[in-house]
Design brief:
Elements: E1 3-5, E2 12-14, E3 18-19, H1 21-24, H2 32-44, E4 49-51, H3 60-68, E5 77-82, H4 96-110, E6 117-121, H5 125-130, H6 133-143, E7 149-152, H7 156-165, E8 170-174, H8 186-193, E9 196-200, H9 223-226, H10 244-252, H11 264-273, E10 280-281, H12 288-295, H13 305-319
Parallel strand pairs: 3-4, 4-5, 5-6, 6-7, 7-8, 8-9, 9-10
Antiparallel strand pairs: 1-2
Helix pairs in contact: 2-12, 7-8
């Protein structure tokens, strides 16, 4: 396992981390027992970074992490997110009292005294601009309630605003082989500013596993069913913003990346880790088997310069124009 510095946070985190949305809810049937097995296996392999949020399963993911990392608090770094428990378009949701309440609730569920990385959870750009949320986060950092803070963004525009106007240590962005736009401007600027990059949705909600056909049916409780067209939240969070059928078609065209890399999943994760600006890639998981498969991406061969060029050309010519949502 390689470890990278997360911006100026002082945190050294594993190049492969894990997101915990799926073990909390909104991804269909899930099992706490399987979640614990997966978390344990990840930590045994050297993973020391997990991403969660107060709305994942109504705080359930945070509680699972508290139990799984008990006694390892100084070794395992947890990033959580806040703001979406309330109305993200209401300025009152961004008050100091409300943010402190969100933080104390997360600390209680995590059973920790400090949050390693506290992230604004996909707030609208106008709220980032016209509220005092960043001075409040600076204050919480000075008080030692949080070690560092970051912002989970939906668009490059939001990310660039954060880079130019705040003291954030990290940006969490949607980034995968079917969502390469951040490479153009956002990532170089983040490197210039010494801001870490956390790559979420690295498998495009499963499209890049190569396991789906166009007629695949997801469970009613799975966001890949109820948010496939953005009915519940930003459409970019589901399949990276691609219409499902188009995404399946595009993923088939990428089957070649699995050659000599074991599987399309491992190959897709390797591509993300190979991008210089990315501090950690955070795929989701629901069970031990998925964790083990994702861990194997650490050992597959790098992409050649020619392969990287081929994948870039594929994105800009075949994929980019089909992405929906603010990006």
């Amino acid at each position: 396992m390689n470890y990278n510095q997360l911006g100026d946070s002082g945190l050294s985190i594993s190049e492969l981390g894990f997101g915990t949305w799926a073990i909390g809810g909104d991804w269909g049937t899930h099992s706490d027992e399987e979640a614990f097995k997966g978390l344990d296996r990840a930590m045994e392999a050297g993973v020391n970074f997990f991403d969660t949020a107060d709305v994942y399963g109504g705080g359930h993911s945070e509680e699972l992490l508290a139990k799984a990392t008990k006694g390892k608090e100084d070794k395992i770094h947890i990033a959580t997110k806040f703001i979406r428990s309330g109305d993200i378009n209401d300025p009152a949701n961004y008050s100091e009292d409300q943010i402190r309440d969100y933080l104390e609730n997360s600390l209680r569920r995590l059973n920790r005294d400090t949050v390693d990385l506290y992230q604004i959870h996909c707030a609208p750009l106008d709220m980032l601009k016209k509220t005092d949320i960043f001075p409040i986060l600076d204050k919480l950092k000075q008080e030692g309630k949080i070690r560092s803070y970051g912002v989970s963004v939906e668009s490059d525009e939001e990310g660039l605003y954060v880079l130019e106007n705040t003291n954030a240590s990290a940006l969490q962005v949607i980034f995968n082989l079917l969502r390469q736009k951040p490479l153009k401007e956002l990532f170089p600027k983040a490197q210039e500013k010494n801001v870490g990059i956390l790559a979420r949705v690295p498998l495009a909600s499963g499209l890049l596993t190569g396991k789906f056909s166009k007629d695949h049916a997801f469970e009613d409780s799975d966001h890949r069913n109820f948010n496939k067209d953005g009915a519940a939240f930003n459409v970019g969070e589901t399949f990276g913003g691609l219409p499902f059928e188009k995404g399946v078609e595009l993923s088939v065209q990428l089957k070649w990346i699995a050659e000599e890399r074991g599987s399309q999943t491992r190959a897709a994760l390797k591509w993300v880790m190979q991008q210089e600006a990315v501090t950690s890639v955070i795929p989701g998981f629901k069970n031990e088997k998925q964790v083990l498969d994702n861990l194997k991406s650490l050992d597959v061969k790098d992409y050649s310069k020619e392969e990287l060029t081929r994948l870039s050309d594929f994105y800009w010519k075949e994929v980019h124009d089909h992405i929906r949502g603010a990006y």
